[in-house]
Amino acid sequence: MLSDLTRVSEAGDSPLPRRTGVHGFLLLVAGHETTVNLIGNSVLALLSDPGQMAALLPGAVEEFLRYDGPINIATVRFTTAPVPVGDVEIPAGEFVMISLLAANRDADRFPDPDLLDLTRPAAGHLAFGHGIHHCLGAPLARLEAEIALGRLLDRFPAMTLDADPADLRWRDSTLIHGLHGLPVRLA
Ligand code: HEM
Q: How far is the CA of 181 from the centre of ligand 1 (A)?
């Protein structure tokens, strides 16, 4: 896709030639960082609870997205009118950063939210955002995660975590929720 974008840009056929770099950046961050970290977070969740290793994909991917999705916050929203949230009212004209991870652990929506349960109906989570900006790549991301995790488990069913969970380091990022590294022992 990046090659095609570059080709049309070089041929002068792109309606927005100077946007090619922007599109490339968007696709790399939105399309790569996200899926990579979903796979890492899912493997960590599975290895921390090996009893669920044999659970069924693809339904499992929805629960991985809910339990430890790779994106911390939605795109920034702007209130055009006062918005009541619980006991608080956000005035009109404010920027709002919405924590997708917190929404996905809302006990009113998902009972026992801190529990990874690959059999729960996890649809309705906010890992891909909500509304008009809902993730364009969601079907591709679901497919990639399903294929990658399925292949990994098929090939290395005895995989274990090769680190003390307390030593794993999470990235210090506003947007991305993912690990610096995930050492595993394949067999
Ligand atoms: C697990 C993987 C992914 C996650 C968790 C994810 C999550 C998100 C989130 C939270 C948003 C913002 C939604 C909002 O503010 O309401 C978004 C937007 C977007 N995503 Fe993804 N994404 C993933 C994979 C992908 C992939 C693979 C692509 C493309 C190849 C992609 C392309 C985009 C684009 C273009 C937007 C902007 C849509 C708009 O503003 O209308 N994403 N994504």
A: 23
* Token pair recorded at residue 154: 């098929």
Tokens standing for 47? Answer: 């290895």
CA 164 to chain centre: 24
Domains held by the chain: number: 1
Structure-token pair, residue 174: 């506003």
91-114 per-position pLDDT tens digit: 999 999 999 999 999 999 999 999
**Ligand 1 neighbour 32 (Cβ under 6 A):** no
User: Would you state the pLDDT for residue 3?
Assistant: 82
Q: What is the CATH classification number for the domain harbouring 141?
A: 1.10.630.10
- Residue range(s) defining the domain that contains residue 41: 2-185
Please give the distance, rounded to the nearest whole angstrom, from the Cα atom of residue 132 to the centre of ligand 1: 11
Looking up tokens 């100077």, which residue turns up? 18
